[in-house]
Amino acid sequence: MARRSKPLKAPDKLVFLLSFVPYLLERRVVDVAEAAQHFGMTEEEIRDAVRLIATSGLPGSTGTYQPNDLFDIDWDSFEDDDVIVIVHHVAIDDAPRLSAREAAALMAGLQYLSASPESAGSASLASLRAKLAAGASSAPSRLGVAETEADASLALIREAVAEGRQLEFDYLNARGERGRRRADPLRIISQDADWYLQAYCHTREDVRNFRVDRMSDLVLTDEPIGDHSHRIVPDTLFQGSESDLDVVVDVSPAALPLLSDYLADSSSREVDGRLRVTLRLAHVHGLKRLVAGLPGLVTVVAPPEARAAVADWASAGLAGYPEHGTAESDARSPHPGDGTA
Asked: How far apart are alpha carbons 70 and 83 in whole angstroms?
């Protein structure tokens, strides 16, 4: 491993030391050369860090540093054998600990990741779950992660990608149109809570992104995928197009970073305490889910068809509630009319 030619800056050195001490405590006995290899540092930098740790601690009740208030190491092993052994440490046991509920929630997430084929049997995930359980303030609750329909589809899609076989499926697009597709799966991408299949669609004769939870009746065929080495497969999930629609919205300043993937440019101006920006979307129907995810934080300003799409969608949702189930009550609702959901 290459060694740095420049010394660490103070913030980087602090981050290193905060990682170095738990590393030494977990390993218990560590060779200087081994530690240098692990952190990508020179052996002399590791020795300097050990000497610094030995002068660190917390003042006792007298306000002065007594022997038991400092870290201590086995100096004979360090100086004679180049081996690091911490024989006394302070402050580490006072670190905040996760509650049982917090640890259980994190462990459930790791359990979900462990169920995916690429993470099955991962020793790292198993070790992390054990550490979370040991570090919690009390025994975490035992949780089970139920498999969703999307999870079952995802397993079949992963198999298709791994084996290079075509998929057939019904797909419901953002416009509410359903159709049967045949596609050559290329790769799987996740964004936030959603999974997408990036594939060459034989119907559209181009690379498309399919949201997994909108795919149904999947069939893994025996037909191998074609050669797509000549195609440019974008690294990011969504790409701009000349046919994209520019939509003007007013957004709360705190929510603006959540729209960064859709911004047409970096320009903005303040309007009544909000920022007026331009978003670039493939079609107006993409606004529905976007606005729903930021309730009260985004107002569609233009064009009129974008405002109408959001208003109609909000009215349809409102009609699903008994107390607002009539067309007359929908017409009186102030929210759909102003392009806010």
From this structure: 19
Tokens of 108: 């459930």
Positive or negative, the CA dihedral 186, 191, 193, 194 is: negative
195 & 219 share domain? yes
Residues 264, 277: Cα–Cα separation, whole Å: 8
Say if 273 falls within a structural domain: yes
Distance CA 252, CA 273 (A): 8
What span, in angstroms and rounded, lies between the C-alpha atoms of 268 and 250? Answer: 10
**Residue 235, domain member (yes or no):** no
Q: Which structure tokens are listed for 293?
A: 């995810």
Q: Compute the distance between CA of residue 32 and CA of residue 152 in angstroms, rounded to an integer.
A: 48
Domain that holds residue 195: 149-224
Q: Where are the beta strands (DSSP E) in 113-193?
A: 165-172, 178-191
pLDDT digit string (tens) for 59-112?
666 666 566 667 778 888 888 888 888 877 665 555 556 676 777 777 777 766
CA atoms within 13 A on the CB side of 33: 2
Question: How many CB atoms neighbour CB 330 within 10 A?
Answer: 19
As a whole number of angstroms, the distance between CA 232 and CA 314 comes to: 38
15-73 pLDDT per residue, tens: 777 788 888 878 788 898 988 888 888 888 888 888 887 777 666 666 665 666 677 78
**Cα 103 to Cα 134: distance, rounded to the nearest angstrom:** 9
Model confidence, pTM: 0.41
Tokens at residue 23, please?
A: 């590393």
